Amino acid sequence: MINSAQLDGIALVVGSGRGIGKEVALSLAEAGAKAVVFADMNEEWAKASSEESAKYASSKDYQTSVFVMNVEDAKSVEDMVSFVIERYGRLDYCVNAAGVDNGVHAPLADTDIENFDRVMSINARGNFLCVRAEAAAMRKQTPKTWTSRNGTRDIGRGVIINIASANSFAGLPGKGSYTISKHASMGITKMAGLDHSPDGIRVNAVCPTWVRTPMLEEELQKNPEVQGMISAAVPIKRAAECEEVSDVVAFLCSPAASYINGASLLIDAAITTTLRLF
Ligand SMILES: NC(=O)c1ccc[n+]([C@@H]2O[C@H](COP(=O)([O-])OP(=O)(O)OC[C@H]3O[C@@H](n4cnc5c(N)ncnc54)[C@H](O)[C@@H]3O)[C@@H](O)[C@H]2O)c1
């Protein structure tokens, strides 16, 4: 039987200083990754998360390092991938979690253009730059196989997971820039999954609704009405815990998910099945 605690490769988590990215990195370490690289623009947060990961890692030779970068800068993204390959020799699991919120909610006609550009530059272009560099490195490495009770199968050269959003599927009034950027992230996931399937690279997205992270705390300060939306609209009446996202990412990285590609998996407690959110 395969479970998501059967990872044995090298992981890179972009945006792992705090929040979902940090928890994903801890889950991958717990699931057996041999090394986890913590990439973030905030060095202090990335260092603290990297140190904490050693507490949970299950590989006896576990290694961890930090790379300070900015997803808005193509060279910084390429240097990050080169760093992983030079240090660890390959790149098996990449998770792209760096992202920013919309800021104050406003109807589309009142959207601040500078804010729109910033959100798109980080959440959409930044996601694209990461996937582009990661896939370019992965396609050069040798594919892996997995042996189970029914024989041996090819599980490919690597896995990329984008942290998209329930807003990749549906809008939220006043959250235009973010929703548009997260639709782009789903497009990147589909295209990269399609184009790089022949290279043995799987690219998927997880699409959570509200998750209890520092970003959500900041959003609640700017838009207090969001607390009411969570209680009224989420069928289980609460935001997700980070682990309820990070453990799904570990599954998607595992051999159990070797036929899942180009998919955007909702983690939304059925919120998007409703016709009206509030
Ligand atoms: N929290 C939620 O409710 C929620 C819901 C759905 C999707 N998401 C998505 O999950 C991802 C993570 O969100 P979070 O809530 O954990 O956020 P967060 O703000 O808690 O953490 C984001 C991390 O990304 C880093 N980062 C931000 N911009 C960066 C850049 N330009 N370059 C490098 N690193 C950068 C930050 O330093 C931070 O460590 C985002 O893409 C977000 O859109 C969050």
TrEMBL record:
Species for this entry: Karstenula rhodostoma CBS 690.94
InterPro entries: NAD(P)-bd_dom_sf, Sc_DH/Rdtase_CS, SDR_fam
Similarity remark: Belongs to the short-chain dehydrogenases/reductases (SDR) family.
Protein name: Oxidoreductase
Keyword tRNA-binding carried by entry: no
MF term (GO), any: oxidoreductase activity
Entry keyword set: NADP, Oxidoreductase
Top-level taxonomic group: Eukaryota
